[in-house]
Automatic annotation (TrEMBL):
Record SUPFAM superfamilies: Enolase C-terminal domain-like, Enolase N-terminal domain-like
Gene3D superfamilies: Enolase-like C-terminal domain, Enolase-like, N-terminal domain
Alphabetized Pfam families for the sequence: MR_MLE_C, MR_MLE_N
Mandelate racemase/muconate lactonizing enzyme C-terminal domain mapped to chain residues: 128-267
Annotated InterPro entries: D-mannonate_dehydratase-like, DgoD-like, Enolase-like_C_sf, Enolase-like_N, Enolase_C-like, Mandel_Rmase/mucon_lact_enz_CS, Mandelate_racemase_C, Mandelate_racemase_N_dom
PANTHER family in UniProt: D-GALACTONATE DEHYDRATASE-RELATED, STARVATION-SENSING PROTEIN RSPA
Protein name (record): D-galactonate dehydratase family protein
Amino acid sequence: MIIDRAEVVVTSPDRNFVTLKLTTDDGLTGLGDATLNGRELAVVAYLKDHVVPLLLGRDAHRIEDTWQFLYRSAYWRRGPVTMAAIAAVDMALWDIKGKAAGLPVYQLLGGASRTGLLAYGHASGKTTEELFDSIRSHQEQGYRAIRVQTGVPGLKSIYGIASNATYEAMQGVRYDHEPAQRGALPNEEDWDTRSYLRHVPTVFEAVRNEFGPELPLLHDAHHRLTPIQAAQLGKSLEPYDLFWLEDVTPAENQEALRLVRQHTTTPLAIGEIFNSVWDYQQIIREQLIDYVRSAVTHTGGISHLRKVLDYAAQYQVKSGMHGPTDISPVGMAAAMHLGLSIHNFGIQEYMRHGAKTDEVFQQSFTWSDGYLHPGDQPGLGVGLDADEAGKYPYVQAYLPYNRLADGTVHDW
Ligand code: EZ4
Ligand code: CO
């Protein structure tokens, strides 16, 4: 089982995706997701120029050795580009090993610890009315846990909102929020923390009054608050019993969460932009968070994220893997295999991909009654149709950014 071909496939059916495809001398293939939203081509270059030449001729069975070799021999460790590239190799090798064994990857990871993965979707609306419609439509699609984001009075555009206008422009294709915009330059959005802090608790009060106490509700503050503002938000949301409050402060400063934790019992989730166990070391050990938001795609693959989650398990911290549309179907499948096998699974984020994406990637996961399951195909259970992929060349796209009223760039 020697790796004798490694191809990097870039395709943009509904958005950009980067996929690594490895082929062994005995004809097995494996897929890995290397999509880094808005910086896709940096990972393509890293893979093509620096990783593919190192893979050819290696034993595809040696997943851990290949991981350590790519991580340590680069000398320049970690970072989103490097760790997405290593993640793709790791996923593709697990896919190949599963096919060689005739088993789905979750069986190789220890077998199923549960029958399905509770998933949450993204409800949003510029107004409370739009938000309620969106929550209802998610419940009709089977979601049993729902993230709530709304417009804030006085702000033109804000993270996390798919308004009815967006929905109509997309001809009803999807009601989820997709932040990356195609175009030569990123969109500029506006931000005002005080308006946000005043408004959000009123929204959760309205949602609880309308939908009752049972429905698990989540919210994402998207890195925009200082520690004391985050503490204030967590405290003001306590009456509405959130499943989690996500990314309250910019992720770089792990110590910030100590202050937040001293003031609120609202559960905290963080880490969608983290890329290694080192980013979590202090916040897990000090029990400053409740959920690990890392995606398999951005955290060095199944092998590394499993180590992060095993470490987290010692502190009763659970998984809450990132699953926006910028994680490809391959990355989502990897998340589902890992989530099914670990004991400390918490919840899986799940936004549906567009119809074109589902034609490029053949998938075998199931979605029923609010639960995901990766299926029982050998490997990850995802195929890539090269002809379909070839129809959609890369399109420049960026995530937006923020400015305050006085023009200062703020965290997006
Ligand atoms: O902004 O995936 O919780 N989900 C999120 C996402 C991220 C995008 C970035 O590529 O915060 O919407
Ligand atoms: Co988030």
